[in-house]
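User: Fold this; tokens only.

Assistant: Input:
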Amino acid sequence: MRGRANELRAAAVLVAISVWPGMALAASTVTGTVTFDGKPPALRPLAMDAEPVCAKKHSGPVPNEMLVLGNGNTMGNIMVYVSKGLPSGKTYAPPKTPVVIDQTGCQYKPHVMGIMVGQTYKILNSDGILHNIHTLPKVNPQFNKGMPGTVKEAETVFQKPEDVFHVKCDVHPWMSAYVGVFTHPFFSVTSTDGKFTISGLDPGTYEITAWHERLGTQTASVTVGANDTKTQNFKFALPAAK
């Protein structure tokens, strides 16, 4: 009798899971690759000549991070995220681990990043020289802090969701980064291989947005079933000449 009761209990759990997708079926994935279509523009290296201390941190010209390409014109620094379609009323707790941006080589690393509302944003100064981190959101309050060489860390928190915004250094004008603030964890930033993966999704239809700092955004509608994986690629190109 006890074995039969356990079987019935297990069957009831399976039925509950089937009618409540959020309970255990948040296991679907959207993956893809972002590429650049056409001949890439020749970008000037970052001009660090005005700050010899920064220039000396590099053995040669420093590539511009505005357009980062890999083999086959795959694109790095693309923010890909779910922009519509998440289950209504479902909430996601922010990670306790911080998102870290470092000022190293007189550059912000990483160049593009996502963070959740309420998650700690930790700023490091590995260069040991004067820097200034100045976030330029439109919804959240700006964070503007000078960091002399002796100040190695600073922290802030963004309390509201916001589209990707610019981060600059008022000391070194070539320093640039971008941050998007989300109420959910379904975002990914591509490396030079252009690949992204967004996992842990409930079954459903989602709007997926790919963002680039100069080439704008692209969107696609993707439907995933339970424990499903769908591929959605994106392709960016320079605007047509007028």
